Amino acid sequence: MPNPPTATTADYRKLLADIRKEMAHGLKKVEELLERQKVLSYWAIGRKISVYLNTRQMPPGAVGTFYDDLSRDLEMHGRTLQQCEQFFRYFPKFKPDQGLKWSHYRFLLSVPDAAKRRAWIERIKKEKINTDQLRLMLMPAGANDDLPEFDLKKPVRGKLYTYRLLRASDIENFDTPWFVDLGFAGCVEAPASKAVLDNKYIYTSEKTDGAYRLKVTNAKVGDLFTFRGKLRRLVDADTPILLIDQGFGKWIVQRLRLNGIDAPEIGTLAGQRAKKWVENELKDAENLVVKTYKTDQWDRYLVDVFYLPKEKDLHRIAAEGLWLNGRMVKAGVAKVWKR
Predict the structure, then answer these.
(1) Is 0.90 surpassed by the pTM of this model?
(2) b/e string for 228-258 if b means 16 or more Cβ within 10 A?
(3) Which range marks the domain in which residue 216 is found?
(4) Cβ-count burial of 170 within 10 angstroms (0-12 exposed, 13-18 middle, 19+ buried)?
(5) What is the Cα–Cα distance from 332 to 19, expressed in whole angstroms?
(6) Could you give the 3-state DSSP secondary structure of residue 205?
(7) Which of 21, 209, 233, 252 is 20 to 30 A (C-alpha) from 35?
(8) Which of 253, 261, 245, 264 is nearest to 303 (CA)?
(9) Is the same domain home to 203 and 245?
């Protein structure tokens, strides 16, 4: 009678590999079916919302209240519900496209022209553009990332010296085809590089023999617009003025606003105490890491600030640094800002 197979036999190892391959294939098919159904369901939800809104006379301001009520009762994000309705309006006769996820369609809602949307869909299928690449490619010049939900337990961290490319034709009629987006409405001509240059990729910069080069990285869109900073002074506890290292030898001074929080006005005793607390907290932090978002109504970029006293490794500060915004709330010198 032959001995039973063991984990050391070639036949048994092949069996394991075959089963694992089949399991992975089955799981992938299930995920594809779920994603397809998600797209169809969101389109159907959008149709029902659109019909409801178009068959009722609503007074000014009532639509916002309608979405608030619907979001509460369905326990579904109001923005997603609005996107579903727009999805139906933009694709009234809809058949899911092979390979496109809900996130693809969601990002395409920023393209108002129907013919251009169709052209994007064909390009996505042909080039197999993933959702992160599409988000990057559709982000207009000069735009920063959207504000995330403010979560004291989970701050959003980016990666230093990561960049997207801008087509020169999207900025002005230049001879050079690509610019590197440095953030803060600044850019520099893309240096010569062995890497393929395309705005579907995210790059990191490397300096070799005194020259900068671009290298494709696996960073995500949310990692962009993250900078080294040096504190110049505080206007008040939540309004720092920083010297910002944009990379490529470029520096810029910026008046910024801490994201998600409000500190007391500087003219109050509480405001002076809050400012002093921040100054003491940052006194041994030679370098800060700053994750930037869009600007506020006074054209100040909203930022999250990270620091580690006496730490010189910038990448460690970015990955492990103390989060100033959250620590201010926990210390009682600032409150979470209600949007």
Answers:
(1) no
(2) bbebeebebbbbbebebbbbbeeeeebebbb
(3) 162-223
(4) exposed
(5) 56
(6) strand
(7) 21
(8) 261
(9) no
Q: What's the pLDDT at 134? A: 92
CATH of the domain at 116: 1.10.10
Residues 101, 20 share a domain: yes
The tokens 């579904």 sit on which residue? 76
Contact in structure between 285 and 328 (CB atoms under 8 Å): no
Residues 40-57 have pLDDT tens digits of 999 999 999 999 999 988
* One domain, residues 192 and 280: no
pLDDT tens digit sequence for 102-128: 999 999 999 999 999 999 999 999 999
C-alpha 117/C-alpha 143 separation (Å) is 20
Q: Please give the tally of structural domains in the chain.
A: 3
**Boundary of a domain, candidates 84, 103, 138:** 138
| Contact (CB, 8 A) for 291 and 146 | no
What DSSP element (H or E) covers 315?
A: helix 314-320
